[in-house]
Amino acid sequence: MTSNNNTACLDEAKRVAIFGGTHGNEMSGVTLVNLWMKNGSEIQRKQVKTKAFITNPKAVEKCTRYVDTDLNRAFTPENLSAPGGHDLPYEVQRAQEINKMFGPKGSPEAYDVIFDLHNTTSNMGCTLILENSKDHFNLQMMNYIKKAITPASCLVLLNEHPLLKYSTSRSVAKHPVGLEVGPQPQGVLRSNIFEAMRDILKHALDFIELFNEGIEFPPCKVEVFRLLERVDYPRDANGNIIAMVHPNLQDGDWEPLNPGDPMFQTFDGNTIPYQGFGTVYPTFINEAAYYEKQQAFVTTRRETLVASAIRKA
Ligand SMILES: CC(=O)N[C@@H](CC(=O)O)C(=O)O
Ligand SMILES: [Zn+2]
C-alpha cells in the first residue's frame, strides 16, 4: 500500500446527475439542463456517466417556482412513501418518481452525486450548498472548485441545521450538491450568471473525473458558512410586512453584520438594527421566493472544516 492509513478510500462516483428546474422560474439551471439534454458532450467525462434532468417540468412550463408545493422541500420519508398516486400533490408525485429514478434516497443504489441548479434574486454570487460537514468527498470537491475558478470565487453554505434543514431534490444522492447563483430575477436569464454556473459545473465534473482516475487528494481546509438562523421581516398582526431590508444590508450578502448595524427600514424611515450577540454573515438577503417562507435573510457563521485525504477504493 502506498497511501497512508489516514486516506479515506471511497467508492467511485460513476453516476452523476445534474438537476435543473427544481424551481421552474430559475432560468440558468433550466436553460443549461435543456441545452445538455440536447447535446451532452460538455458534461460527459471518460470515467463519469452524467445525466441532465428537468425535475419539475410543469413548473418550468408555467415559469413558476412550483405548481402545488415546493419540490425542494418534498423529499421527506413521509412523502416518498405516501400512498395516493395521482391524488397526491404534483410535486409529491414527482418526488416519488425522482426517488425511483435516482435513489432510493439513503440506499446503495442511489446516484453518487446530484448537482441541483438554482438561482437567487439575492446578491450571493456563486454559492455551493452542502448538507453534511463530514462528507469528505464533497469537501474535497469544494476545495478543488474554489482553486480552479480563481480569480473568480465561490462560497460554501453549509445547512446542517436541525430545524432549518429541508428535504431537497439532491438529497436523493449519496453526495448532494446545491449550486445557487445570483443575483438573477425570477424568469430572467442573465449571461454572466449562466456562464458562472456553467463554469462551476465544468470544474465539478473535472474533479469527479480525476477522482475516478485514481488521483489521491491530500488533506485540505475548506471555509464554509454554517446556517445559524432565519430572520423574518417585521410584520403586523395580519402578517403584512411593515419594513423592508435596509439599504445598508441590501446586496450585502456574505458581508459581516454586527449588533447595532441597520437591518430593516420601516415605511416611515425608521431603522431597525440587528440585535444578535456577535458578528454573523447574512445571506439570501431579500430572496423573492422566501417572502412566503417568512424569511428576509439567514445568518451564518464562518468556519473552517478539514477534509481528510481521499482516493478511490
Ligand atoms: C432561492 C432558492 O430556491 N433557494 C434554494 C436553496 C437550496 O437549494 O437549498 C431553496 O430554497 O430551495
Ligand atoms: Zn431554487
Automatic annotation (TrEMBL):
<feature type="binding site">
    <location>
        <position position="118"/>
    </location>
    <ligand>
        <name>Zn(2+)</name>
    </ligand>
</feature>
<feature type="active site" description="Proton donor/acceptor">
    <location>
        <position position="180"/>
    </location>
</feature>
<keyword id="KW-0862">Zinc</keyword>
<dbReference type="GO" id="GO:0046872">
    <property type="term" value="F:metal ion binding"/>
</dbReference>
<feature type="binding site">
    <location>
        <begin position="72"/>
        <end position="73"/>
    </location>
    <ligand>
        <name>substrate</name>
    </ligand>
</feature>
<dbReference type="GO" id="GO:0005634">
    <property type="term" value="C:nucleus"/>
</dbReference>
<keyword id="KW-0539">Nucleus</keyword>
<dbReference type="GO" id="GO:0005829">
    <property type="term" value="C:cytosol"/>
</dbReference>
<comment type="similarity">
    <text>Belongs to the AspA/AstE family. Aspartoacylase subfamily.</text>
</comment>
<protein>
    <recommendedName>
        <fullName>Aspartoacylase</fullName>
        <ecNumber>3.5.1.15</ecNumber>
    </recommendedName>
</protein>
<keyword id="KW-0963">Cytoplasm</keyword>
<dbReference type="Pfam" id="PF04952">
    <property type="entry name" value="AstE_AspA_hybrid"/>
</dbReference>
<feature type="binding site">
    <location>
        <position position="23"/>
    </location>
    <ligand>
        <name>Zn(2+)</name>
    </ligand>
</feature>
<feature type="binding site">
    <location>
        <position position="65"/>
    </location>
    <ligand>
        <name>N-acetyl-L-aspartate</name>
    </ligand>
</feature>
<dbReference type="InterPro" id="IPR050178">
    <property type="entry name" value="AspA/AstE_fam"/>
</dbReference>
<dbReference type="InterPro" id="IPR007036">
    <property type="entry name" value="Aste_AspA_hybrid_dom"/>
</dbReference>
<feature type="binding site">
    <location>
        <position position="180"/>
    </location>
    <ligand>
        <name>N-acetyl-L-aspartate</name>
    </ligand>
</feature>
<keyword id="KW-0479">Metal-binding</keyword>
<keyword id="KW-0378">Hydrolase</keyword>
<dbReference type="Pfam" id="PF24827">
    <property type="entry name" value="AstE_AspA_cat"/>
</dbReference>
<feature type="binding site">
    <location>
        <begin position="166"/>
        <end position="170"/>
    </location>
    <ligand>
        <name>substrate</name>
    </ligand>
</feature>
<dbReference type="GO" id="GO:0019807">
    <property type="term" value="F:aspartoacylase activity"/>
</dbReference>
<feature type="binding site">
    <location>
        <position position="290"/>
    </location>
    <ligand>
        <name>N-acetyl-L-aspartate</name>
    </ligand>
</feature>
<dbReference type="GO" id="GO:0016788">
    <property type="term" value="F:hydrolase activity, acting on ester bonds"/>
</dbReference>
<feature type="binding site">
    <location>
        <position position="26"/>
    </location>
    <ligand>
        <name>Zn(2+)</name>
    </ligand>
</feature>
<feature type="domain" description="AstE/AspA barrel-sandwich hybrid">
    <location>
        <begin position="221"/>
        <end position="301"/>
    </location>
</feature>
<dbReference type="InterPro" id="IPR016708">
    <property type="entry name" value="Aspartoacylase"/>
</dbReference>
<dbReference type="InterPro" id="IPR055438">
    <property type="entry name" value="AstE_AspA_cat"/>
</dbReference>
<feature type="domain" description="Succinylglutamate desuccinylase/Aspartoacylase catalytic">
    <location>
        <begin position="13"/>
        <end position="208"/>
    </location>
</feature>
